[in-house]
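Input:
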Amino acid sequence: MALRRIVLSLAVVLLLVAGVLPVAVMAGRSLVVDGRLGLAAYHGLLASSRQWELLGNSLRLAGLVTVAAVALGVPAGLLLGRTDLPGRRALGTLLALPLLLPPSVTAVAWMGAAAPSGPVVRLLGAGASAVLSSFLFGLPGTVLVLATAFAPLVMLLVAAALRSVPPRMEEAGLLVARWPAVLLRVTLPLVAPGVLLAAALVFLMALGEVSVPPTLRYPVFAVESLTRFAAFYDLAAATAAAMPLVALTAAVLGAEALLVRRTRGTTGMESRGAGRALVVPLGRWRRPAAVAAWSLAGLLVGLPLAVLLVRAGGAASYAEALGRAGDALGRSLLLAALGGALLAVVGFLLAVLAWERHGRLWAVPDAVALFLFAVPAAVLGVGLIVTWNRPWANVVYATPLILLLGYLGHFTAVSLRLSRASLELVPAGLVEAARVAGVGWGRRLLWVVAPGAWRGIAAAGLAGAAFCLRDVGMTLLVHPPGWDTLPVRIMTLAANGAPSLIAALSVILVAATLVPVVLLGAVLGRREVLP
Amino acid sequence: MSLLELEAVRVVLGGRRILDGIDLAVEEGERVVVLGPSGSGKTTVLRLLAGLAVPAAGRVLVGGRPAAADGRLLIPPEERQVGMVFQDLALWPHLTVAGNLELGLRARGVPRTVRRQRVAEMLELVELGDRARARPGELSGGEQQRVALARALVLRPRALLLDEPLSSLDPPLARRLVGVILRLQERLGLTLVHVTHDREEARALATRTLFLERGRLSG
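Output:
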């Protein structure tokens, strides 16, 4: 049992050091101005009408993005997770892609669509450029890009929640009503906690997004924290500006947990996972639904990608792009691989902690990881710098270790949740049989639990790698000299690089992201074989 | 004409023959109990009659009309006038007891006042008149069983299908529920099809007992 305590404690400590410590240090640091303890930084912040205006903008943006993402993601999740829509797996992969790309790449693609020299304007005529630009630059365009980027999160969480609805509940509904009524009155209320979590996460991710709003010229509060740090190195002001976002994150997740707890008593699904999930036959609506879903996916995902491909041009652009950013691509892939592996291991161990309900605080790491996932990346970035920018900590601060720490702090929730879901599929009897046979905890974990949950662990690593690969907000701030990644390089070059170069780099990033996505699809698509 | 019929029904699941050409005819007002060991296909018989499963070959008839045949569903479950109590009850946890009973009435467009009256009557019949506002999670095991029974009966079905609803109850509670079922069956003139592996239960409920083993039904 000593081994179990040591290993699981180590995983918890890693999460605390990677995520909680930076946020805590930053909170403390925001209270120190010119060596004196006080709230001076907050006074400055609260007194500024500009800050209140920015906070209002942020809340407006996050609210609209949440509404749009839920409106797109819930029907998409239902269509993909419950119906016989033709080609739903390919459609799911296409729709999920924007979540795994830096939203700034999607913004670049849409800017290409609106550009006077872009393929869309050439197709629609010169007048279209002004109309598209006036829509794109400002609130509507920022909502479009971020809703496209975050709707897949809603879609995936709804699809996952649907898998946990006991088929018997829906069958009992089918005895008395048709599918639309059953979906509305039985299925949707049962997946409501999943929708609520997705909405909370989307709201917080939109609130903390720092790459799209400045690109599309919509001023928001999160960029303020970044600017105060990057432009003026004003640590107290930067940390004070970050703290409202941390407080909002805690408040939104707290409210979400409270709401879910209130409904959990009413949605505790006793016969969870019993039997095969039901499929809603679309009947005569199958073809129109497929046409509508594919058209929407084509418009929201296919069109921006096509614009990037067209604007990138020929092989010369790609050669130049690789010449200018080949090193950044290599670093991105290396960091994504290392980050993914680290996330898979730590996420698995924390999932085991929750699965075994070990100790009194088994649920805490999951809640902490979720909080750190929702905290804006730039905020975590500032926290990491404040924590590790010390002479004795150069081995972390001046090396890629700081990036790996940041990825661990920010993305553990992804790997933890995926591992946890697969652990639920490991029959308790297998573990108990090994225990009765005298197999120790460590060996049980390696010989029985991990092989039973390998799909989830692999998926956790690949999803973790994809999230590391897409990160901009934190990497932009904390990367040591010479360790910028491809998304960061794209963002820096976007200011004054040639459109064809930026488009080619974006296409290369999309291709690099597709590697873990395709592997993920292959892993999740394989049939689970359990004894 | 029988109320419920299976004709040469074959069901294959995952390459295994669950039912191998069985015939069954249930007459109006009968109480048929199908006895069989776990995994013998008892639940599948009920699912075929309810319309939740379709036979790979053979026919299902309800009130003399073909309801499913050779892999095709001809009458959907909600039009068959059968109620079913599932083994795990499958009460909707997000709805109150009254909400569980009302869902089917709402789907049929029954006016609100009529709906409320029918729900109240049905809850009185199963002695749960004071529990209408409770959620399933707040009820005892026996109360949950009676809610499931009331939900299956509130639409006034011609037949009631029972999938081992007593298996999780202790003997005194199970005996009490048998009494409730028999009383309701007599009062509402129901046809019962009950599946179980428990001979005591079969003896208490059946006017006719059938045995299902290795996919075949015998009298």
